[in-house]
Amino acid sequence: MAVHAHPDDESSKAAATLAKYAAEGHDVMVVTLTGGERGDILNPAMDRPGVKENMAEIRKDEMAAAAKALGVQQTWLGFVDSGLPEGDPLPPLPDGCFALVPLDEATEKLVEVVRDFKPHVIITYDENGGYPHPDHIKCHEVSVAAFETAGDPDRFPDAGEPWTPLKLYYTHGFIRDRILRFSEEFEKNGQENPFAEWLSKWRREQGDIMGRVTTQVTCGDYFPQRDEALRAHATQIDPNGFFFAVPMEWQQRLWPTEEFELAQTRVQTKIPETDLFAGIEES
After folding, report:
1. Which pLDDT tens digit goes with each residue over 211-265?
2. Is 76 domain-assigned?
3. Mean pLDDT of 34-41
4. Cβ(175)–Cβ(259) below 8 Å
5. Is residue 229 part of a domain?
6. Cis link prior to 134 (omega < 30° from 0)?
7. Average of pLDDT values for 24-50?
8. Quick check: is 59 in a domain?
């Protein structure tokens, strides 16, 4: 089960891993916590009359197409997108948005899905949300709380029969070593490096999230499905943009994995891992 804040997050974060496990016969569920109603139009080709006004309906259709591309199941939790506040000072969050929902209320709804689907593994974001969007941070908090309480019969007794998931992972995608490897390939081939500005702003003291990675899943064969799912989110993903800057052959040859951090486990496993289900069959 992959728990995400908005439609499109499942396609930009560990999507090839989801497609791989689905293709191998695992039941895979994406839980989308909000409808992405306050998302901006990030693809210039979609910036046309009627799109912004119907963003919620359009993003539902995009999500259905992305789930089909990945071969996964998908469900909505029904919360309202908080939007990304901008300004100094930041404006207050809108009334009724997901980030302001009491933790127990949101957790109970996710626990109900966990108890119904019965996942062994849950994937979500780290404490920083992957990036500091209020919905991503809240998604982290709710996912951790659901992992810790879904198996407790005293918590949320109206949310179904208890089920105890075994492993909780955080996805990690913004890895400096990966970007450097692609940058070197651009330079070796005499091509302009699209990541040069991004790398120039990367402060050395920030370190690299790779230091937190415990698990690398080889899934390069499923990168085309990941890209199909990304393109399905046409309001959010520019087909001429950042996500498609690196040729597919380079990606599959130079960095054919997706990265995770084992945050909690109820089974014994050996680090580093190459499989999110490591240790579960033996448990």
Report:
1. 999 999 999 999 999 999 999 999 999 999 889 999 999 999 999 999 999 999 9
2. yes
3. 95
4. yes
5. yes
6. no
7. 96
8. yes
Written as one letter, the residue type at 38 is R
Residue 177 half-sphere exposure, CB side, CA atoms within 13 Å?
13
Q: How many domains does the chain have?
A: 1
Degrees, nearest 5: CA angle 123-126-128: 145
Distance from C-alpha of 206 to C-alpha of 209, rounded to nearest angstrom? 9
Tell me how far apart the alpha carbons of residues 140 and 130 are, in angstroms, rounded to a whole number. 9
Contact (CB, 8 A) for 170 and 137: no
pTM of this structure = 0.96
- The DSSP annotation for 182-224 comes to HHHHHHHTT---TTHHHHHT--GGG--GGGG--EEEE-GGGHH
DSSP 124-144: E--TT-SS--HHHHHHHHHHH
Output the pLDDT for position 205: 46
In the block, which residue shows the tokens 């963003």?
A: 55
In a domain, 30, yes or no: yes
Domain of 159? 2-174+209-265
Please count the residues of the chain: 283
Q: Which CATH number goes with the domain that contains 62?
A: 3.40.50.10320
